What does this fold into?
Amino acid sequence: MKFISYFSRGEQVGVLAGDKVIPLQNNLSVKINSMLDLIENTTADLLDEIESIMVDNKITSLPVDSVKLLAPIPYPRRNVICLGKNYEEHAREIKMTKISDTGIPSAPIYFTKMASPAIAHGDDIRFSCQNTCQVDYEVELAVVIAKEGTNIKADEAEEYVWGYTIVNDVTARDLQGKHKQWYKGKSLDTFCPMGPALVHKNAIPFPVELNIQCRINGELRQNSNTGNMIFDIPYIISDLSKGMTLKPGDIICTGTPSGVGMGFEPHKFLNNGDIVECYIEGIGRLVNTVAVI
Ligand code: MG
It folds into this structure.
């Protein structure tokens, strides 16, 4: 099942049924006011209940085109956790020594990204050239954590996954280089497009091997498969949770494949009016337009 967050007198969560959205608030035995509520209250019984309201047609649905989409988790409780250089071809294309060497990492490279809020499918990626003039795209599979866990074993990692969405880890390359540490260059306002939907893990076979692509104005720039990650999802969850508790609603961006703007010579950074389309098989398309202000 695919779930969306949308705005209708505040944040709402609904389940997608074709081109319709069925509101969950007030329609289930458990009060569900947001995606984080849904994640924290999910049981097999609740999922059965949601499936049943999708087929019984007793609840008024809304055309999905009629609602204002929000990012699936517009205000994550903690910073979005990210991996750097988790696809070998991407690690090789990174040649700006100010940011990173060209080596293949022997352990996951973790950093975080502030998303307050994460923006939705259809929202603008906005920036001023007074702050940055080298803005880049990075399509990534994002894993959303289902329940609290520490020292999770790799072979039990899937139990801790709630589902999957797409994040565009938009990055100011000049700031990434200038400040050495990546936090600032990854965390400018609007630099975390997320969505369009959060797909429950029951709809995605494990291990997760999905085609992943990014197009700029229709031109295919990134094209890989999540099966090509250097550190896979079980490894990441196991490694990250060693001595560090993961919590429901945590978001882990698993890295981007090759083809980012910085990897081209000359560089292909984002310009005003560019349309950025991030696609992951089974999840959907996250499309945002660039607005240089
Ligand atoms: Mg990234």
